[in-house]
Write a structure and sequence with these properties.
The protein is α+β, with helices and mostly antiparallel strands. The chain is built from two helices and four strands, in the order ααββββ. The N and C termini lie far apart (46 Å).
């Protein structure tokens, strides 16, 4: 029984550390960056949407099969004007 417990603890720790570290690169974003700079810094978005002069880049953090967090980057006229998690800056969705 003991080996299963150790494996379970190690697997849980790996998932937690993977989730915590996977979006630390979001901390490198800065207001005024271009879309290309965002993609170079964070990677390609999972989903994009746009309306008028506003574009949203949606990133999903996952640990294996499950999605854990969603992060958004809002571009206004091609430059970052806001970024964060859902609810951080009144996203329409």
């Amino acid at each position: 029984m003991k080996p299963f417990r150790i494996i379970g603890v190690l697997a849980s720790a790996a998932v937690l550390f993977a989730c915590a570290g996977s979006f630390q690169r979001m901390n490198h974003l800065k207001l005024g960056m271009t879309k290309q700079e965002v993609i170079q810094t964070v990677g390609a978005p999972d989903i994009t949407s746009a309306s008028g002069h506003v574009e949203y880049l949606k990133y999903r953090s996952n640990s294996g099969v499950f999605y854990t967090d969603e992060y958004y980057v809002r571009l206004l006229d091609g430059k970052v004007d806001a970024f964060g998690q859902q609810g951080d800056f009144n996203l329409p969705y």
